[in-house]
Amino acid sequence: MSVEVRLATADDRERWNGYVAQSPQGTLCHEYEALEVQADHAGATLHPLIGYKGQEPVGLFPIFELRKGPVTTVFSPPPHLRVPYLGPAFLNMGKLKQRKRERRRQRFVDGCLEWIRSELNPRYGHVRTSTAVDDTRAFTWDGYHASPEYTYAVDLTLERDDLLMTFSSDARSNVRNADDDAYEIDVGGPEAIRRIHEQVEHRYESQGIGFDVPVAFVLDLAERSPNGHVRPYTLSVDGEFVGGILALEYGATTGRWMGGVRTDADVDLPTNDLLDWAIMADGLERGLETYDLVGADTRRINRYKAKFNPDLETYYSLEYGSWGMRTVASLYDSIK
User: Fold this and answer.
1) The domain defined by 157-288 carries CATH number 3.30.1330.20
2) What integer best gives the mean pLDDT of the chain?
3) What is the distance between the alpha carbons of residues 82 and 197, in angstroms, rounded to a whole number?
């Protein structure tokens, strides 16, 4: 029996978030409300593709269409919003033997790519997968170019003291020796999101780097995500904001999405070490399993992230189109 790929119907959309929760590749940004928020702020048209084998769902693939004059491009996730991962999310494949799993996955991806060609006929396409996608051959066999990308993930299944002991000596010292009475770390709301976003924006601008993520996008994502959380961790000294990290939490994973930039505040504190440790300690208490440091492709930043003894994980950027169109598609920002 073949795999039928179609646009999600009203009934499919009602079940969509449940399917995301079942998929190993599912993330907060795969949830239907999050997809709508992405489409709104990217100025894109959302095409939520879903595949069935008979009555059984086999995959989700949200696609965003962007038109520039006569040129159509497709993305997953859309550009400029710095969404870490999206792409396909597979269902009901874990118990299949390798041959059947590969065949079903291939038929689902083939069906999605054929729908994109026949309905949208894009000149360029870009997909960024989640770390749970370990096989991109279905895309490369269809003309996509696959490039590995990397992130770091900290194991939160250890005991608190055991986890701390895995850190580098300077990270352990920074956490243990900081005066707890000298600072306060909180998980805030919309105002905390605004402060962190403003700090990140200013830091990028000071380095001559564009930062196009609208704060309204982050606020809308936080407000409309039904099953995940945008958690703004802030560090303050004497009631004054010093720094913060926006964490994306979904399922058993929390991720270091935005923030953690160098602070201009004149304080003698290892601000980012303390923020990262607060997120990890919070995750330990609430039974989470992984802290995704979101990105491991920048040498300078990697030196900081590696001191938490993370595991290296791979995800993929998948590109379709001529080299000329890839140049035009430079509008697509890397999350790094």
Assistant:
1) no
2) 92
3) 12
